Amino acid sequence: MLLNPNQDNPALARAPNQLDADFFPLVKSGHIDKAAIISVAGDSVWASSAGFTLKPEEMKNIANIVTNAPGAVDKALAGGLTLAGRTGILAVKTTQAILVGHYGEGVQAGNAAQTVEALADYLIKVGY
């Protein structure tokens, strides 16, 4: 399981919390170019693709939005949204985690969403 890379897979132990495309199915799909799995509380990174870093306040804001914390969406929208080109971020909550995926230009948002949601469905099914 990718959620604790050091525990069960010695190949992943060489780079704690940094998973390359061979081990990170979201990136390997081709629909997501960077991704992370964070705790549902937004206080820790469980895994991330190389070069994808979320700041602590970004993780907390994402967690507040996907857990429907009072005022979280309004606060996020009040800060303004910046769109650069045709890229995007997706966040999907499971029982214990939040999957965050970034898709680049040339990727259909629906394909990216389907990829992230499929992994989220699997994680929910196995208790994560």
In terms of topology, how is this protein built?
Elements: H1 5-8, H2 10-13, E1 18-19, H3 25-28, E2 34-39, E3 45-49, H4 56-66, H5 72-78, E4 88-93, E5 97-103, H6 109-125
Parallel strand pairs: 1-3
Antiparallel strand pairs: 2-3, 2-5, 4-5
What is the first-to-last residue Cα distance? 10 Å
H-E order = HHEHEEHHEEH
Shape: globular
Number of strands: 5
**SS strand fraction:** 15-25%
Identify the CATH class: Alpha Beta
Short descriptors:
128 residues, alpha+beta, Beta-Lactamase, 5-stranded mixed beta sheet, 6 helices, actin-binding, cytoskeleton, PFN_euk, PFN_sf
Structure description:
The protein is of the alpha+beta class and 128 residues long. The chain has one domain (18-125): Beta-Lactamase (2-Layer Sandwich). The protein has helices at 5-8, 10-13, 25-28, 56-66, 72-78, 109-125; strands at 18-19, 34-39, 45-49, 88-93, 97-103. The protein is globular and about 35 Å long.
